[in-house]
Design brief:
Blueprint lengths: L10 E6 L3 H13 L5 E5 L39 H22 L10 E3 L2 E6 L1 H15 L8 E3 L2 H7 L1 H4 L8 E6 L3 E3 L1 H14 L3 E4 L1 E8 L5 E7 L8 E10 L5 H8 L8 E12 L2 H4 L5 E3 L13 E7 L2 E11 L12 H4 L3 H13 L1 H11 L3 H9 L11 E4 L3 E6 L6 E3 L2 E5 L5 E6 L7 H12 L1 H14 L11 H8 L3 E2 L2
Parallel strand pairs: 1-2, 1-11, 2-8, 3-21, 4-13, 11-20
Antiparallel strand pairs: 3-7, 4-6, 5-6, 9-10, 10-11, 12-15, 12-16, 12-17, 13-14, 14-15, 17-18, 19-20
């Protein structure tokens, strides 16, 4: 569907949710079509408080530099790097958009949002060491990963990340890879900056504003009912929109179900919560300037891959370790305990049951994680930081993630990525799923533009290629170095 300015529509595009996805789409739309009326509605009292909040995610600029789950081993023992290459290319688009906005002075307050932070993989034991070696050999053959380093020398690993080796007394084999050009991202700052820029360019951002109902009209527009959640709020408001994007994180499934589009039939959600251990002790933080990812436990979802992360949030440095998976019936961190029950429909019951029966190892893993003690959590941390002491670490609750369940072989499949669901006419679209979501927000929103605005796509492409050279086939190459040199968006750790 192609929104066109008209007195019969209150808005051209209505975006639900004040996270990084809506912020990215708002930035693109206000750049491409400055005359369109765009509204963004966030149910909480400020944007970026759920999954885009920096303490609700690991802040990893996911470029597949260190995440072992993006490079699975094939039955013949070889390593498949296709997903890693795709994610790396998608993250480059995000960096290019951020660079363009920063260079144009359009990212107020986000100067320190992206920090150069090496990405490392770290494994123990002969079998995992050999797998990491094969992964490294497969990746470095591709130009995007040509500078990836590998070592089995404990002294080198100690130089890269001292806390990994300090007080390590066992003599089992170890190995690590390092990408010195990795990044840590404060997605909260990025989100707020892009929304502020969109507002400056004419968009309207409403907080404490909850979309409660969506009804498609005969002419293809949407009648959207919006509740004012403030304690002294006004009565519900109705807006007519030519296009609706549901970027409400865990709340997206419910709203898409209420829209009654046929494309959402069969979709369900499996909520997984999580916790991290965090330290801001300056003596400890100063010894670890990398993001170190390990190997997931048997049965663990990809989002639960253990990692010891250097973080920079609002200019302050910290270390986080985790996540420790949990389970909750909520679809949002500030959601309702009835979220899961309210999402059950006749059309998605079979996929949910099929996934439950075929993922008993995941259920076993979650039960083990939920019942874990403080000593269990400390033991997991010490596998990566043997010198860790409980007095230096606090337990913090991370964001809620809702994994996608949909129809598939055997009745249903469980997906751990993100999935864009759009109506056939392109008048409404929503995003389901979790990692690597935020890092690939730009690629996802470009996909949305192609699918939902086909009549404008050709006219928009030259401008988009100007903003993001990779879309036109140009190499990224020196853009990040330029960013470091001019200080517009990133700084050293």
């Amino acid at each position: 569907m192609a929104p066109v300015r008209s007195s019969t529509a209150d808005v051209d595009a209505l975006l639900v949710g004040g996270g990084v996805m809506s912020a990215t789409l708002a930035s693109l739309l206000t750049t491409l079509e400055p005359t369109w009326r765009v509204e963004i509605h966030e149910r909480l009292d400020a944007p970026a408080l759920e999954s885009s909040n920096p303490w609700n995610n690991a802040g990893t600029g996911h470029a597949a530099l260190c995440e072992l789950n993006y490079t699975p081993e094939r039955p013949d023992g070889s390593v498949d790097i296709s997903k890693a290459v795709r994610i790396n290319e998608q993250y480059e688009l995000s960096r290019e958009l951020w660079h363009h906005l920063a260079a144009a002075g359009r990212l107020p307050g986000a100067e320190r949002a992206v920090t150069t932070t090496p990405h490392m993989s770290f494994v123990r034991g002969a079998k995992d060491v050999e797998h990491l070696r094969k992964r490294w050999e497969a990746l470095r053959a591709h130009r995007l990963f040509a500078d990836l380093e590998f070592t089995t020398d404990p002294a080198v690993i100690e130089r890269w990340a001292p806390l990994l080796m300090a007080d390590r007394t066992d003599d089992e084999p170890v190995a690590a890879t390092r990408a010195a050009w990795g990044t840590d991202v404060d997605f909260g700052s990025i989100t707020r900056a892009m929304l502020a820029d969109a507002v400056t360019r004419g968009a309207e951002l409403r907080t404490s504003s909850e979309v409660t109902r969506l009804k498609r009209l005969r002419d293809g527009r949407w009648r959207v009912t919006i509740a004012d959640r403030r304690w002294n709020g006004r009565p519900p408001r109705t807006v007519t929109a030519r296009f609706v994007f549901v970027g409400a994180g865990g709340g997206a499934l419910h709203l898409l179900q209420r829209s009654r589009i046929k494309e959402i039939r069969g979709y369900a959600g499996f909520p997984i919560s999580g916790q991290f251990l965090r330290t801001t002790n300056p003596e400890i933080v100063a010894q670890h300037g990398a993001k170190v990812y390990g190997k997931a436990a048997v049965g663990a979802p990809p989002m639960s891959v253990p990692h010891l992360d250097a973080r920079v949030v609002d200019g302050g440095s910290a270390l986080m370790f985790g996540p420790y998976a949990g389970w909750s019936m909520k679809f949002l961190k500030r959601g309702s305990w009835t979220d899961l029950l309210r999402s059950v429909r006749p059309g998605n019951l079979v996929p949910m049951l099929a996934v439950g029966l075929r993922n008993l190892d995941l259920l076993t893993y979650l039960i083990r994680e939920v019942t874990a003690s403080d000593a269990d959590r400390l033991r997991a941390l010490r596998a990566y930081m043997p010198s860790a002491h409980p007095r230096d670490w606090e337990l913090v609750t991370a964001g809620q993630r809702v994994q996608v369940i949909k129809r598939g072989p055997g009745g249903g499949v469980l997906e751990f990525g993100t999935e864009l669901v759009a109506s056939a006419d392109g008048s409404i679209a929503g995003l389901l799923g979790a990692s690597p979501g935020a890092s690939t927000a730009v690629a996802t929103m470009l996909d949305l533009l192609d699918r939902c605005f086909p009549e404008q796509a050709d006219a928009w492409r030259p401008r988009l290629q100007q903003i993001m050279p990779s879309l036109g086939g140009a190499a990224w190459d020196t853009a990040l170095d330029q960013l470091v040199d001019d200080g517009t968006l990133t700084g050293g750790h």
